């Protein structure tokens, strides 16, 4: 019996070996290489420096840089605001799509359209919508009497943050809705019938049945969206370019890597992003594990 288990274990490792090699090449090596670069002063505009080893100097410089601190604060604010709103909007959309009504397939397809649009295209569209001269957002608010004149929403810090949050929620809330819908459809209908017989109303059924049954699905959806929101780059880059306090950590890293060609410092910022994302993933995975175990 033990020899059979050893043989099965050996065969399993042999079958996984190609995938593990690919994973090492495309995932582990770049991470280790980036960490190695972050420990050196590597500015491509100064090749004569020899790229000396500087230890943790690049990391300490990050925390001394006010621009880096501002980008971290913005990224956390953006992540919290978008993920919370996407959860609310996505859950509501999933509940609607889970109902049986005429034209449900058309409604599901319509809700998923924003998610199918590439982020760059979506960002350009919203940039035109917020235009201070011919933007649709100003026109609608003006016709409703909510503003007395067209405003440059992307010219102020508050307006820029609001515009980015709305654009991101519009784009990715359907993804949250799709995942939650999958969880809702796995709930047996008999549970709701039993609750109805016992005298439970719709709200009680939602609290006692729906929420507990989709908790794991919601945590998975939050995991994906939190990681994606924290790494936001293309939406901010296209809509604002990081102006008015809207520079994300990813955009800050890109500026040092590709514009200033400071690979040492930029790699250090990239490593911090990886550590933040890794920490977020651990927290969610621990919560998901506890939920599944219970």
UniProtKB/TrEMBL annotation:
Originating organism: Paenibacillus apis
Entry's Gene Ontology cellular component terms: plasma membrane
Main location: membrane
Protein name per the record: ABC transporter permease
Family: Belongs to the binding-protein-dependent transport system permease family.
InterPro entries cross-referenced by the UniProt entry: MetI-like, MetI-like_sf
Topology of the protein relative to the lipid bilayer: Multi-pass membrane protein
Keyword Nucleus: no
């Amino acid at each position: 019996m033990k020899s059979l288990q050893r043989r099965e274990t050996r065969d399993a490792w042999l079958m996984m070996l190609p995938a593990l090699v690919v994973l090492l090449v495309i995932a582990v090596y770049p991470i280790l290489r980036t960490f190695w670069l972050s420990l050196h002063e590597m500015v491509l505009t100064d090749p004569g420096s020899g790229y000396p080893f500087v230890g943790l100097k690049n990391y300490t410089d990050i925390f001394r840089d006010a621009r880096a601190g501002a980008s971290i604060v913005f990224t956390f604010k953006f992540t919290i605001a978008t993920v919370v709103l996407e959860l609310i909007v996505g859950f509501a959309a999933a509940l609607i799509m889970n109902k049986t009504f005429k034209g449900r397939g058309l409604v599901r397809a319509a809700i998923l359209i924003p998610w199918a649009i590439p982020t760059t295209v979506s960002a350009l569209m919203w940039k035109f919508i917020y235009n201070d001269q011919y933007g649709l957002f100003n026109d609608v608010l003006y016709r409703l009497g909510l503003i007395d004149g067209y405003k440059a929403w992307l010219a102020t810090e508050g307006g820029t943050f609001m515009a980015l949050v709305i654009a991101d929620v519009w784009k990715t809330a359907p993804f949250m809705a799709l995942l939650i819908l999958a969880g809702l459809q796995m709930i047996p209908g008999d549970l709701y019938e039993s609750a109805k017989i016992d005298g439970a109303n719709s709200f009680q059924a939602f609290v006692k049945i729906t929420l507990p049954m989709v908790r794991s699905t919601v945590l998975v959806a939050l995991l994906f969206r939190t990681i994606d929101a924290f790494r936001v780059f293309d939406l901010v880059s296209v809509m604002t370019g990081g102006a008015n306090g809207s520079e994300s950590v990813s955009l800050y890293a890109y500026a040092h890597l590709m514009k200033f060609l400071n690979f040492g410092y930029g790699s250090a910022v990239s490593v911090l992003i990886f550590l933040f994302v890794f920490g977020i993933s651990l927290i969610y995975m621990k919560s998901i594990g506890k939920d599944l175990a219970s």
